[in-house]
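Internal tracking record. Fields below are filled automatically when a chain is submitted to the structure queue. Please do not edit lines marked as system-generated. If the sequence contains nonstandard residues, flag them in the REMARKS field before resubmitting.
Queue: standard
Priority: normal
Entity type: single polypeptide chain
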Amino acid sequence: MKKIEYLFLLLMILQSCNNTDTNQLVSPGLKVDSKDSLKLNQVINFNLIEYPGVFLKSEGLEEWEDFKKLHESLKRLSDLNLRDVQVDLLSLSGRLKEVSKKTLPGTLEVPQIRSRLKVVEMQAQKSRYFTQYYREDSLIPSLNKLYESYNALVSRMTTLDAENAAVSVSYTHLTLPTIYSV
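SYSTEM-GENERATED OUTPUT FOLLOWS
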């Protein structure tokens, strides 16, 4: 009876070693197996919001170098193909860490901006992970979410100023009730 169990175990091990239908994860060199339809030299276009130069100038932040470098890194990432994505994401992650460690300038040091910056940083880390364990169905959507998060950050930066102006106007027109003592 023991011989049959050992024989059965040996057959199962041999069968599992010969299974060619398994999906293979890719090594850090971004090699794609034959089942992936995405070509490494294919350029992917991502939707990157324009640099908010007018907004930064109106806020007196036109010299904010960290944000300029961050936007340039995202632009470079959107222009390159998938062969260079790992290096670009590494530099982007470094820039995001630099920006998040420092105090944001002007009126931008608020929880709404800080949290969106953290989301962009998390999406960049997620994309970096997917460059090491590349699958077409995970890296491209992750990069799209990275750009969506960055666009939301820039959009929130521009709308924050309008909201602050609206709130300050409503406070100037606010009248407090007078309390009469008897």
